Amino acid sequence: MSEVKKTIDAERIRKAVQEILLAVGEDLEREGVKKTPERVARMYGELLGGTFDDPNIHIESVFTEPCDEIVLLRDIPFYSICEHHMLPFIGKAHVAYLPTGKVLGVSKLARIVDCFAHRLQCQERLTGQIADFLMDKLKPQGVAVVLHASHSCMTIRGIRKPGSMMVTSALRGIFKRDARSRAEVLSLMHNDKGQ
Q: What does the alpha-carbon distance between residue 112 and residue 108 come to, in Å, rounded to a whole number?
């Protein structure tokens, strides 16, 4: 018997959004909000669709290649939802690994970032999940992940500091234990594109 994939419960979200609209004094029949519960349910399906996705499907595109230099995909746009306030945080990911004879299809690095990002998250955990997953599945000499993101929960509410950027890193293997390798990968991640 095949396993049924879990999905977001759109109907439950729709009902919850109706309750929120009522709680803030809205008229559910007003033209501008009449379809809002359905729209919000679809939105959460998109934004949090990675909750039930298995990142292992992206490791199927591993190729044997005698590469022993850093592989880096830089400036991967991503968005996620902060689990504390359920507001978005949006940024760029830089993901690098030092292979041991196996390389991953380049688009798969971006797909792995999305798979973990499209969940209720905190940026620190997200950064580590990406690094740990690649370390475990590719068995490289090392992995380095750096995320830069702007968090709506501190730019539009609370302290209200637009333009602030949170930076997190997760270094594994050689990038954590060897200062020269760490310096090289971080330099590649942050070098201006024109260089």
A: 6
What one-character DSSP code corresponds to residue 30?
S
pLDDT digits (tens, 9 = 90+) for 130-169: 999 999 999 999 999 999 999 999 999 999 999 999 999 9
- 96 by DSSP, 3-state: which? strand
**Residues labelled catalytic:** 82-85, 123, 151, 153
**143-173: buried (b, 16+ CB within 10 Å) or exposed (e) per residue?**
bbbbbbbbbbbbbeeeeeeeeeeeebbbbbb
The pTM assigned to this predicted structure is 0.91
Which amino acid does the sequence have at 179?
A: A
CA distance 162 to 154: 8
Q: Are 144 and 185 in contact (CB under 8 A)?
A: yes
